Amino acid sequence: MAEVVIVENAEAAGALVAREIVQLIERRPDTVLGLATGSTPLPVYQALRSELAGRDVSQVRGFALDEYVGIDPHHPESYRSVITREVVEPLGLDPQRIHVPNGAQATIQHAGEDYEAAIEAAGGVDLQILGIGTDGHIGFNEPGSSFASRTRVKTLTEQTREDNARFFDSIDDVPMHCITQGLGTILKARHLVLLAFGEGKAEAVAGAVEGPLSALLPGSAIQLHPHATVVVDEAAASRL
Length: 240
Ligand code: GLP
Hints:
Blueprint: E1 3-7, H1 10-27, E2 32-35, H2 42-51, E3 61-64, E4 66-68, H3 79-91, E5 98-99, H4 108-121, E6 127-130, E7 152-155, H5 158-164, E8 177-180, H6 183-187, E9 191-196, H7 202-210, E10 228-233
Parallel strand pairs: 1-10, 2-3, 2-6, 3-5, 6-9, 9-10
Antiparallel strand pairs: 4-8, 7-8
The structure holds 2-amino-2-deoxy-6-O-phosphono-alpha-D-glucopyranose (GLP).
Keywords: Allosteric enzyme, Carbohydrate metabolism, Hydrolase
Organism: Microbacterium algeriense
GO molecular function: glucosamine-6-phosphate deaminase activity
C-alpha cells in the first residue's frame, strides 16, 4: 500500500516534498523530475523557490504529464506556459531540459511515441509529482484509462472541461483533446508522490489508496507501484 503522510496544510506538504526533491538533486544534479500542473502542486513549486535558491540547478531535467491538443503553446493556459511560469522561470531551470508533450496538431500522430522516447533517453523519471482529479484522474487519464497506457491523445471528459473552464474565457475555449502520459508511463517513475488537499478530493484519495484496483478510478494505479507516497491534509484524508 502507498505510504500516507497526513500534514497540517498544503504549505507543509509543499515544504516536505520540496525537501525530498532537494535531497535528490544533491545526490544527482541531473535528477529527472516529473512535473504536474493544476493548483495542487503549486505549494511544492513555491517551497522550491527558497529551497533551491543559490543551488546549481543547471542540470535538472523535467517532464510534464500532459498538454492540451491544438492550443497555441504561447496561450497563457497551455501547460507549456504554466510550467514555464510556475516552475522553469521562478526556479531558474534550463528550459531546454524541461519537456512538455507537444500538443501541435501537425505532429500529433507521433507526439506520444516521441515523448516516451525522450523520457526513456533521459533514463526515466526519478520523482513524479501527481495531483488527482475529483473523478480520480491522474495526468489526463480519465476513468476508463488502461493501466498499461502510454503517452497518447485522449478526449477530455465534460466534467474536466467544466473544472478547467475557470482558466479560460468560457467553456467553449477549453480544448476537447489532450495528450497525456499514460498510467503505464507514470508507473515507470521511480517514486510517485501524489498530493491532495481539501474535502473535495477525499473520495478520490480513498479510492486511490484503499479502493479496488479499477480503471474507473485511474488513481488506484498507484497501488501497483512499489514506492508511492500520498501527501494529504486532514480533509483529503477524511475518507481513509
Ligand atoms: C488537471 C490536470 C491534472 C490535475 C487535475 C487536478 O486535470 N491535468 O494533472 O491533477 O487537474 O487539478 P487541481 O490540482 O487544480 O485540483
